[in-house]
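Quarterly update from the structural biology core.
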Amino acid sequence: MYFRSRRRYYLRRQRTPRWIKWSELRAVYMACPEGMHVDHIVPLDGLTAEGYWVTGLNVPWNLQYLTPAENVLKGDRMRLEDDPISPPSAL
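Predicted structure, tokenized:
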């Protein structure tokens, strides 16, 4: 568990551009509604909905609020509805 949390910390630091103000990121986390999780839309190190490797940035516009159940289900993958490149599914 310790290794995983340290790895996550270093990924977050590494994927935060220097021009991002930490106060902007902190504001997103502080505004998180009670009982919700802050999640990266494009994972810092994960997969697209189609299974391709992807590396996201730790920036305010790459963060979203999800319920704990949605966040656990999503894991380190992008959801199909969050992928701007994927064509909409035919219903």
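The chain has a mean pLDDT of 86.
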